[in-house]
Predict the structure.
Amino acid sequence: MSLDWSDGRLLVTLRDAESRQQLASLLDLSARLTAINRVTSGVAHEIKNPLNAIAIHLEVLRSRLTSDDDETQNEVDIISREISRLDRVVKGFLSFTRPVEVSLDSLDLVPLVYEVAELVAPHAGGPGVDIIVSHNTPQALAMIDRDLFKQAVMNVTLNGIEAMPSGGTLLLRLIATPLAVTVEISDQGGGISDELRSRIFQLYFTTKPGGSGIGLATTFQAVQLMGGSISLTSEPGLGSTFRLSFHSASLPGAPGASMEKVPSFEA
């Protein structure tokens, strides 16, 4: 990458083929998600109305069953569970496609990352995951929406904890540069194969039993709404690292970076 400040304007030139390919992939994914949202948000609304009617009439049918008709009762229970599952899917999709009001402010990401670490610490205690936060500067100002940022980082962090059922270390690292502030979230889980990596941000795609497939798609959407970018590097058997980057809000001539050891959070 080269920087050219001629004519008082900044020109960034990328010569790394892998970076260009990654950017093209993200743009393609963004376009596909936008197209899917337009078409299917209306479909989801159309599904929800008859789904509610089915659930109501099923309860009426259940009330008419005799107490000794166990076989039919069991079949009704199965139908009821599947209706509830489908209802959760539709609600999740409608939540994902609902317009989001974004309020960008210049905020310090250092305390926000600590807040996320404290919020997820109880989830890390069971499997014995240590959460460590580090940053290369005492202050990292970026243009973000506070709630969207916390939700995005929390989604990835919880995924990292779930990827280490036998314990390990989850590292949240803040890297501030004059152009961007990046949050790296690294786990020591099983990693993600190349085949799955290209689909990891797709809505409803999940590798976890019982997973909704909404979390990372929501994270991708939130980062984009804030004008940021998200990338993933992973190696099967060695873990994964997600990088969430946001536009820096630091003024030119701000204090230089410093290293600070941060104690780990142990639930």
